[in-house]
Request: fold
Amino acid sequence: MSASLLDQARDKSRVAVELRSVSRHFGDVAALERVDLEVLESQVIALIGPSGSGKSTLLRCINNLERVDEGSIHVFGERVGISEDSDRPRPLRDRAAAAQRIEIGMVFQNFNLFGHMTALENVMSGLVHVRHTGKDAARARAVELLERVGLGSKQRSYTLQLSGGQQQRVAIARALAMSPRLMLFDEPTSALDPETIVEVLDVIRTIADGGMTLLIATHEMGFARGVSDEVVFMDAGRIVERGLPQELFLRPKTERCQEFLSRVLHSGREL
Reply:
């Protein structure tokens, strides 16, 4: 899609995620500094940049796992973490915040699976305890999703019996089980060995092909270039550059993005 066509699409399509002047500080460190970002429905955005650039914090703020110090975030038109029902906006109560979070699936670096549960039970857990789905229906849905991520034969396996790549695929199935409208991936391959990275990236490619709105923080440059509609380069808590993959990777406009890509691409992160 050309830049002009992309601009036209942004004018006509529904905005799925909107960040306006979002800042988040940890003491004197600015993890995010006045970030503006729009993501269209069904768009796939790859977030790239050095470690500590703000990618993970951005995703965690969208999912209301980190509070925003300044600015606002809206997901499908609803303000994240804030009730605007009264004249004076106030933080959502825990139950309301949890209900809002159901619409957003998130896959973390370190899987966050329940070690005392099987793969099947991990995928079922949110359906049963959050969505209040009957156990038979939840089991059927979990089986379907485990098969979708290539783990139909691992339903009864516990976490320690699975490889890192298999654990991450269970985590993806668990997130999908909640039928989110938006999926966030926070460095989903960073804890994996090279042999298992590809199997996880293949699952994410399939999800992207299905039309779900995705934001993916990743160090895999070839994957980012191949799967995304737009690439966002972050550094020091700011969005430095964004553009179509073929343009940003081949003709980066900023010196900082040029420097980063030169260093990372020479390291072989081309999956």
In short: Residues 194-209 form the longest helix (16 residues). Residues 113-179 form one domain.
